[in-house]
Amino acid sequence: MLSLFVLTEYVGIYYVYSAGIASALGAITSFLALRYWAFKRTEKKIIGQAFKYVMVSGLVLLLNMGGIYILTDIAGFQYMISKIIIASFIGIFISFPLFRYWVYR
pTM for the full model? Predict the structure, then answer.
């Protein structure tokens, strides 16, 4: 959220692109945190997990950017509100289940 805000408000990047960059930064941090801390799945090779993680993160990235665009440009929400709504929905119903039961199983 912070990187989305900073990239959009202070760097001047279009909010949809900022959302993509912010998602990529979050994905790197998240992969390491989930592997070593949350799911503690270090017994498997990192390359296999990383490949699956990249696939899921790509899907999440597209859904985030598309969802933010739809809620902001079409529905008229402020972009940070759109991000909160979309991130919550995707996190609960898409990201967590895929990471937990496919990437880190």
Answer: 0.74
